[in-house]
Amino acid sequence: MKRRQQKKAEKQRQAKVFARELRAAVEDYQPAEALRAIRERIGGAR
To answer: What is the mean pLDDT of each run of 10 residues along the chain (46 residues)?
Structure first.
């Protein structure tokens, strides 16, 4: 049971980091750069 909670917490933490990075990329607004970063992030998350 505890293991599942740890996994859930880890996913939430990753989601927060991802959201923060995404926001930063959008604020900078460099579409190509942002897309590449997102693809890398998604690839790295899996």
So the answer is: 86 89 76 78 69
